[in-house]
Amino acid sequence: MSGPNILEALDVSDGSRPQDDSPRQLTTVRGPSDTVFRVAAHGGGVLVLSIMTLVGLFLAVRGAEAIASAGPSFLTEQDWEPNSGRFGIAAVLFGTVAIALIAIVVALPLAVGTATYISEYAPLGLRPLLVGIVDLMAAIPSVVYGLWGMFWLEGAILPVAQWISTYFGWIPIFNVPNFNPGDPLATPTVFTASAFLAGLVVAMMVAPVAASIMREVFAQAPIGEREGALALGSTKWGMIRSVVYPFGMGGMIGGAMLGLGRALGETIAVYLVISPVFVIQPHILQTGSNSISSLIALRYGEASPFELSALMAAGLVLFLITMLVNFGAGIIIQRSRSGAAS
Amino acid sequence: MTITDTPRAQRRAQRPGRITRTAVPGRDGRSSHPTRPETRRNLARIRRDDVLRVVGAAAAAVAGTAWLFAQVFPFEGPLTFVVIAYLLFVGFFVVLISFDDNRVTVIDRVAAVVMHSLAVVLILALAVVIVFTLGRGSEAFLNWNFWVQDLSLAGPLDPMTVGGMAHAAIGTLIMISISLAIAIPLGLLCAVFLAEFPSPFARIVRTVVEAMTALPSIVCGLFIYATYILLFGFDKSGFAASLAITIMILPIIIRSADVVLRLVPGTLKEASLALGTSQWRTIWHVVLPTSKSGLMTAIILGTARGIGETSPVLLTAGYTTYYNLNPFSGPMVSLPFATFTLVKSPEPSQIARGFGAAAVLMVLVFVLFLVARIIGGKGAGVLSPGGQARARAASLRDAVRFDQRVPTTPDRLDVPAIPDDQEVTR
């Protein structure tokens, strides 16, 4: 009953009938409990798939009605009067993208800086606390940011907007036509409820989300490469620039794009701070802007069935843009070197 | 081969307490894994010069800005002061370093300063958000009636001592409970399906779920509004809002649960299957317990998101100032929705109530988040110190049990299982 015996026995049996040495058909016999479980799990998958496709299909079908009736003017028309047949998403789409871009331009440096600080500069004992704080911030409800923007930031930001408009008014987007900086009686109320303000509020919401993703990626940068860079005489910043950032590039882009997706879909915070207008408003510091989601929140209540279908079409466009951004972010994160582990 | 094959192993088998070669974790005092990943060392050194330069540049910047404000420029406002002081600080700092060091060092130090200040700006701004909300809300939520009354008796002009937000809090709890009652079983089942039954169909489901995480929350509300309320003709109700919240959090829960489930080590599953366990039992007794903390985190983060979202509720729940405990009939209000409605009122007292509701909501989300942090945040199969101690104690108990069993039934180990097979093969 020793080991070699068994091996010999196997050798013999195999050697005598070499034609048997072929892959066998392995069959799995499942017990009744496993069969039930398989069916249940597949059923769960089918159910979720059907709910999700139902939502998407319903949106597409109802939205297609309005898009078909509006034709190509759906993308070029600025007004929103579906009942008289004149409606399009040009103005709201422009507002949505403008607010999201302002948000991401403000949030990106904040997020990269915070992530770098937490992962590289912060004292080791402080790191878990800071990580907790930033993750916590990402969970604050958007209505709270909306309140803050409406009651605190609006007052605090007026002088800043006025200053930017006064000294950088020659840049077209910072120009405010109704405001004359030379006039001492000029009222700063032309700066309230602007796309700039909405963008800042959304930036505050987005920055922690992006920072928390970036921080996770930065922390995964290989220790060997870090210490190697330092050992070759690099300064800390040189190490960060040549090891941490290239390693975390996918995470940085992906985090920023996920933040952008969040910024595009944000409703309540934007709704609370902007005053809706239905024209393309290229002067971002001036009162009045709009976004697709706040258009839906504004108009769903008294909507006729056709108007509702137009709102669905707008929602569908927003959904498609957000989906595109999210998928892009996912692909970038996965393709990057750091994405394999996360 | 049994363990008693060699004479040495047979001798070991005769000796009580020495039969198993099972390494009991922690028995020899080493509880950590021998091949654990290397940890980062703290390579930062702060020299006295660094501190002195920062302090000196800061002092010079504050003094310089104060002088500028008083003597040269007619600027005003604390924000301008801070901005100019910061710019001056960076300038002075660069000058101070360039006395001693080269350009590379200057860039390094300036980069460090910029990173520190960006982090401070973000965390400060977020602190302002929280303190501002709590401060403005304290006017309302420091009164006891805020916690126990509804708003039915409180008009817009009534003082803070009348009326409260209990109806909204109860509404929030009812809505989120219904959503979770649907989303947790369905979400976990779907996540198990995605992780444990890989197939082309599962890939399709995963892609669709990932796409749906991008669905804007207002569109969830719009969908339920257009179907449940307009198409089927039901009234606006708490249940409709729950359905909208469910559609919103379901993809979030599935996605994060799927990630956690896929992190369960394959060796654990294979070990369980190799012992003859059915797949169902493997998942129930190995996969789910191993990833318990991650799954809890997924659920709690989904809950926090669902509680805080206003827009699905805005379209589907209706607004009320009364208690409504029945989710199927009559309007029902949630905390974020009440906040949203109240702060649009021009009356200061209504606005204060709105801030109070927002503060309560924020605290609720914080508590949920803390709970998620405490039980979750660890990788699959990573135990807390308490859990480690329990696992070690269980292993020790098993070892002791094995030790006690061996002397009483020594011949059990010599049961010749393999010779039988040999007979068959020959």
Automatic annotation (TrEMBL), chain A:
<dbReference type="InterPro" id="IPR000515">
    <property type="entry name" value="MetI-like"/>
</dbReference>
<keyword id="KW-1003">Cell membrane</keyword>
<protein>
    <recommendedName>
        <fullName>Phosphate transport system permease protein</fullName>
    </recommendedName>
</protein>
<dbReference type="GO" id="GO:0005315">
    <property type="term" value="F:phosphate transmembrane transporter activity"/>
</dbReference>
<dbReference type="InterPro" id="IPR011864">
    <property type="entry name" value="Phosphate_PstC"/>
</dbReference>
<keyword id="KW-0592">Phosphate transport</keyword>
<keyword id="KW-0812">Transmembrane</keyword>
<dbReference type="GO" id="GO:0006817">
    <property type="term" value="P:phosphate ion transport"/>
</dbReference>
<dbReference type="InterPro" id="IPR051124">
    <property type="entry name" value="Phosphate_Transport_Permease"/>
</dbReference>
<keyword id="KW-0472">Membrane</keyword>
<keyword id="KW-0813">Transport</keyword>
<feature type="transmembrane region" description="Helical">
    <location>
        <begin position="243"/>
        <end position="261"/>
    </location>
</feature>
<feature type="transmembrane region" description="Helical">
    <location>
        <begin position="308"/>
        <end position="333"/>
    </location>
</feature>
<feature type="transmembrane region" description="Helical">
    <location>
        <begin position="46"/>
        <end position="67"/>
    </location>
</feature>
<feature type="transmembrane region" description="Helical">
    <location>
        <begin position="87"/>
        <end position="112"/>
    </location>
</feature>
<feature type="transmembrane region" description="Helical">
    <location>
        <begin position="160"/>
        <end position="177"/>
    </location>
</feature>
<feature type="transmembrane region" description="Helical">
    <location>
        <begin position="124"/>
        <end position="148"/>
    </location>
</feature>
<comment type="function">
    <text>Part of the binding-protein-dependent transport system for phosphate; probably responsible for the translocation of the substrate across the membrane.</text>
</comment>
<feature type="transmembrane region" description="Helical">
    <location>
        <begin position="189"/>
        <end position="211"/>
    </location>
</feature>
<comment type="similarity">
    <text>Belongs to the binding-protein-dependent transport system permease family. CysTW subfamily.</text>
</comment>
<dbReference type="InterPro" id="IPR035906">
    <property type="entry name" value="MetI-like_sf"/>
</dbReference>
<keyword id="KW-1133">Transmembrane helix</keyword>
UniProtKB/TrEMBL annotation, chain B:
<dbReference type="InterPro" id="IPR035906">
    <property type="entry name" value="MetI-like_sf"/>
</dbReference>
<dbReference type="InterPro" id="IPR051408">
    <property type="entry name" value="Phosphate_transprt_permease"/>
</dbReference>
<keyword id="KW-0472">Membrane</keyword>
<dbReference type="InterPro" id="IPR005672">
    <property type="entry name" value="Phosphate_PstA"/>
</dbReference>
<keyword id="KW-1003">Cell membrane</keyword>
<keyword id="KW-0813">Transport</keyword>
<dbReference type="GO" id="GO:0005315">
    <property type="term" value="F:phosphate transmembrane transporter activity"/>
</dbReference>
<feature type="compositionally biased region" description="Basic and acidic residues">
    <location>
        <begin position="27"/>
        <end position="40"/>
    </location>
</feature>
<feature type="transmembrane region" description="Helical">
    <location>
        <begin position="168"/>
        <end position="195"/>
    </location>
</feature>
<comment type="similarity">
    <text>Belongs to the binding-protein-dependent transport system permease family. CysTW subfamily.</text>
</comment>
<dbReference type="GO" id="GO:0035435">
    <property type="term" value="P:phosphate ion transmembrane transport"/>
</dbReference>
<keyword id="KW-0812">Transmembrane</keyword>
<dbReference type="Pfam" id="PF00528">
    <property type="entry name" value="BPD_transp_1"/>
</dbReference>
<feature type="transmembrane region" description="Helical">
    <location>
        <begin position="237"/>
        <end position="254"/>
    </location>
</feature>
<feature type="region of interest" description="Disordered">
    <location>
        <begin position="1"/>
        <end position="40"/>
    </location>
</feature>
<feature type="transmembrane region" description="Helical">
    <location>
        <begin position="51"/>
        <end position="73"/>
    </location>
</feature>
<dbReference type="GO" id="GO:0005886">
    <property type="term" value="C:plasma membrane"/>
</dbReference>
<keyword id="KW-0592">Phosphate transport</keyword>
<comment type="function">
    <text>Part of the binding-protein-dependent transport system for phosphate; probably responsible for the translocation of the substrate across the membrane.</text>
</comment>
<feature type="transmembrane region" description="Helical">
    <location>
        <begin position="207"/>
        <end position="231"/>
    </location>
</feature>
<dbReference type="InterPro" id="IPR000515">
    <property type="entry name" value="MetI-like"/>
</dbReference>
<feature type="transmembrane region" description="Helical">
    <location>
        <begin position="79"/>
        <end position="99"/>
    </location>
</feature>
